[in-house]
Design brief:
The protein is α/β, with parallel strands linked by helices. It is 42% helix and 15% strand. One of its GO terms (cellular component) is cytosol.
């Protein structure tokens, strides 16, 4: 199975002008579409990030659908326990219809106490709620009756058999996702561990693949912080402060860590494209991934630098790893 290339944005900016932050994120989708990226992903956040955050990803993706032609549109993730799964299925089906069948659905449990409290959900039940919600969502997106006898969602959904993903944070969670027949989403970094992220996460993916018993081939989406620039010094000047600040306030990270340790904790690949390719070739999870999902978060580079980084990923980094851009009309 050939490698697919994606990018993920948390729709985060630097100031109070959220309209500009959202416009900038839309422009990244347009640029990625023109560069041949296979999938553009957004993350859902109800609690504001520093300078942004996207609570309504399907509204955002509906707009992106109108501005793009070929790139697929997904969430990594939608926080499923905080959604009515029937309403969510309707939103997904509308965006899928408007986009010509380009939607990918990534769901997960989240874990923010504040977000769960705001929506009147019990955070201690997040895994149970995710399982229950996913069962309803799958039925709805398969055109089955949900909620009450005789009710099916509108518009009639397309085939979502191989388009539902689950984000996980453990081997047990990965095996559970496999049993549900979901594709797998692996986060950019493994938090709460001293070992390198790929050493921690590779057993999770192995557990997923071992538990997979669905006839179709599984997909593994690997999210990584990838930021190419002219050289390592230039990249560091553009992302280092942001990553350092994020690490200093990140729960579970040690206090007073320096920039290098912050970048390590976020499992960052940055610098000249050749350096990034060399480092990614040593990545333990990438050989079993079907999708490489690149992101800049928690860095918030200037828009011109962000677009330039996407260009370098699409023209120098990903092709060296075996990715081929989509052709016109494909």
């Amino acid at each position: 199975m050939s490698l697919r290339l994606g990018f993920l944005t948390h729709v985060q900016g630097r100031g109070a002008d959220l309209a500009q932050t959202y416009r900038d994120a839309q422009e990244l989708f347009v640029a990625a579409d023109e560069l041949g990226f296979d999938i553009g992903w957004v993350a859902q956040h109800h609690v504001p990030l520093g300078g942004g955050g996207l609570p309504s990803p399907w509204t955002f993706l509906a707009h992106a659908a109108a501005r793009t032609r070929r790139i697929r549109l997904g969430t990594a993730i939608t926080i499923l326990p905080l959604e009515d799964p029937v309403r969510l299925a309707e939103d997904i089906s509308v965006v899928d219809t408007l986009s010509g069948g380009r939607v990918e659905v990534g769901v997960g449990s989240g874990g923010s106490d504040v977000e769960y409290a705001a929506f009147g959900r019990d955070v201690a039940r997040r895994r149970e709620l995710t399982t229950e919600g996913l069962a309803v969502l799958r039925t709805a997106l398969a055109g089955g009756e949900v909620g009450t006898p005789g009710f099916t969602i509108q518009p009639p959904p397309g085939d979502f058999t191989d388009r539902i993903w689950q984000g996980v944070f453990s081997g047990a969670g990965a095996a559970h996702a496999a049993a549900a027949g979901s594709n797998l989403l692996i986060n950019r970094a493994a938090y709460g561990y001293e070992e390198p992220t790929d050493e921690v996460q590779r057993p999770w993916v192995d557990a997923y693949l071992a538990a997979w018993d669905t006839p179709r081939a599984p997909r593994v989406g690997l999210s990584r912080f990838v930021y190419p620039a002219k050289d390592r010094r230039t990249a560091l000047a553009q992302i280092g402060d942001d990553v350092h600040r994020a690490a200093l306030r990140f729960p579970g990270f040690p206090p007073n860590l320096d920039v290098d340790e912050a970048l390590r904790r976020f499992h960052s690949f940055y610098g000249h494209p050749d350096e990034i390719v060399t480092a990614l070739r040593q990545e333990l999870v990438l050989p079993v991934a079907t999708d490489l999902i690149t992101q800049f978060n928690p860095a918030v580079p200037d828009q011109d630098n962000a677009i330039r980084a996407l260009e370098l990923i699409a023209t120098e980094v990903a092709p060296a790893l075996g990715w081929k851009p989509r052709q016109e009309g494909v």
